[in-house]
Task: structure prediction
Amino acid sequence: MAVERLDSQLKEETIAHFRLAQDSYADKRWHDPLLINTLSESIYQNLSSDSRVLEVGGGSGYILRTIAEATKAKCVINCELSADVYNSQVDSKIQLVKGTALGLPFTDKCFDFVLSVDLLHHLVGKSMRNSRRNQLAALAEMSRVASDNGLILIYETCYGSELSNFLVFYASLCASKLGIDVSWLYLQKQAIVCFLTRNQIVDMVNNQGILQCLGVFHRKNALKKPLARFMSTMLRANPGTAIVISRKAR
Ligand SMILES: C[S@@+](CC[C@H](N)C(=O)[O-])C[C@H]1O[C@@H](n2cnc3c(N)ncnc32)[C@H](O)[C@@H]1O
Result:
């Protein structure tokens, strides 16, 4: 598959967004039981201290630190577009490599475990179609660098319908062009987002041909405030979090 290139202006906007938002990705976010339990029940038994682990778009490295502690893996690498923003990783064991998900700077088949956490919806292009091509290209890259029998885990915030994905993508594009935050829609300027439904992630995995889907885990978001719950149900079609695990066939 031809690898799409990130539009350079969108790329600068993404980096600028994470420069502003980096505190939101602080440690506490990573006590998500869905991810912690899935890692310990489905991933850790396949890894050892010799395993090579890659997170694409790993921010400050919180998840990689959790994985390194649990598995004793010595090689844990974070490939980040915004490497200048996250140049201080939470653990000195984590190697930070500057690069893009759309063209990972690694040779084929060199990682036993590759994961991305809330990355795909940031791989936007100027249209939904281009964004979807970027997301597919990123998954193809993750698959390329995974070893035979290697595991791939995708964790994403998901919306319930493609209509919601469409509305939120174009709303975020407009908000970004106008330089405004729309907090009731969870939109921030410079953060153009193109979410997927859980089934779209599973289809993307199955369409790679070389990946075998091993499991799908899902949780609906629990929003306490009635207005937030109403807006979420109407516009984002009951958003939730999905984890899709696959294995690269030999
Ligand atoms: C929502 S944050 C998640 C960070 C981390 N995974 C976490 O959950 O705390 C998305 C991350 O993806 C990175 N990112 C965005 N586009 C990228 C790209 N094309 N290649 C690699 N990383 C990218 C951003 O810099 C940001 O750190």
